[in-house]
UniProtKB/TrEMBL annotation:
<dbReference type="GO" id="GO:0008234">
    <property type="term" value="F:cysteine-type peptidase activity"/>
</dbReference>
<dbReference type="GO" id="GO:0006508">
    <property type="term" value="P:proteolysis"/>
</dbReference>
<protein>
    <submittedName>
        <fullName>NLP/P60 protein</fullName>
    </submittedName>
</protein>
<dbReference type="Pfam" id="PF00877">
    <property type="entry name" value="NLPC_P60"/>
</dbReference>
<keyword id="KW-0788">Thiol protease</keyword>
<dbReference type="InterPro" id="IPR038765">
    <property type="entry name" value="Papain-like_cys_pep_sf"/>
</dbReference>
<dbReference type="InterPro" id="IPR000064">
    <property type="entry name" value="NLP_P60_dom"/>
</dbReference>
<keyword id="KW-0378">Hydrolase</keyword>
<feature type="domain" description="NlpC/P60">
    <location>
        <begin position="78"/>
        <end position="201"/>
    </location>
</feature>
<comment type="similarity">
    <text>Belongs to the peptidase C40 family.</text>
</comment>
<dbReference type="InterPro" id="IPR051202">
    <property type="entry name" value="Peptidase_C40"/>
</dbReference>
<keyword id="KW-0645">Protease</keyword>
Amino acid sequence: MKEIYRIMSTPVTAQRALRIALLATLSFVMLALSACQSSRPISERMESKYSLKKRKNSISCLRSVGRERCALPVKVSERSYETMLKSIEQLKGIKFHYGGTTRKGFDCSGFVQYLYAKAFNLALPRVSYNMALVGSMVPREQLERGDLLFFAFEGDVSHVGVYLGDGRFAHASSVAKKVTISSLKERSYAKHFAFGARIIKVQE
C-alpha cells in the first residue's frame, strides 16, 4: 500500500515542482521588465505615455464675437507675452494654496490657468493632468517661451509651470510655498521633467 501511495504521489510532486519553477521564472521576467521600465528616464516614459493619449489640438478662446475654439498653437503678440511677464512679476511671492486660482493663493495649475486667461484669453483645463493633454508635445531641447512644462513627481504628471526661456520657468511651488521662478537645471526639476506642451506661439 505504501508503494502504491508513493507511485501515485510522484507525478503530483513533479507537477507541483514544475509549477513552482514556472512561477519563479515568470516572477523573474516580470521583475526584469519592471527594472527596465523604471530605469528609463521620466521624460522618456511620460512622453511615451502621453503621446498615446488622445490630445486636444484646439482650445476655448475669447474673441470679439465671443467664445470659440482656436487651433493650437494660438499665435500671440509680443505685447501679450510681455503682459504675462508683468503678471508673473506682480504675482511672485503669493502663497501656494491647494485648489487656489486667485491672488489669495494659487496651486500650480491654478497659477498657469490664471496667466493664460489674463494675458491671452485662453481657457486651459483646471488640473495639470488635463492640461498635459492639450497642444503638441515638446521635448526639453525644443522649448520656446510660453510653453507649458510638466513634471512627474508621483509617477505621473503632477506639476506644471510656464517656460520663460534660458532654462527658467514660473510656477506656484508647493516646496517654496509661493509663486516663484526656478531653473530647469535644479536637480529635482531636471530629474522629474516630463515634457513641454505648446499652446501659444509668440510672434516676434
